[in-house]
Amino acid sequence: MYWLVDGMNVIGTGGDGWWRDRHRAMVQLVDTLERWSAATGEDVTVVFERPPSPPILSTVVEVAHAPKARANSADDEIVRRLRASPHPSTVVVVTSDRLLADQASAVGAAVHSARGFRQRIEGPH
Q1: How much is the pLDDT for 114?
Q2: Are 97 and 118 in contact (CB under 8 A)?
Q3: pLDDT value at residue 17
C-alpha cells in the first residue's frame, strides 16, 4: 500500500502543544513516519500545506507540500496526487477531513482516520 498522509491532520490529533512549535511537530511526525515505514516497508508521502522551513529531508518518506500555501491546500494536493495515480485503489489517504475522505473514496482510495493512523505509527505506549 501507498500512504498519502495529511500531515497537519495527524499532528493535530495530539494534545502535546504542537501549535507552539509547528516545525518541531512536523520534524517529529516525519521521524515517526520514517521509523514506521522502515519497520513495515510501507511507502509513505506526508503532505503539508507549505514547505517546511527549514526543509525537512528524508530518504525514507517523501515530504511534500502544496504548490501554494492556503487553507486546505494539502487536501487539494492529496486529491491531485490521487487523480494522477494509475492505481488509486492501492492508496490509503490519512485524514480527519470529511470532504477529503469523500473525494478519496470517490476515486477508489481507502481512507484511514488521522487519529487511528497516529496510534498505528506510534505503537503501544
Answers
A1: 97
A2: no
A3: 83
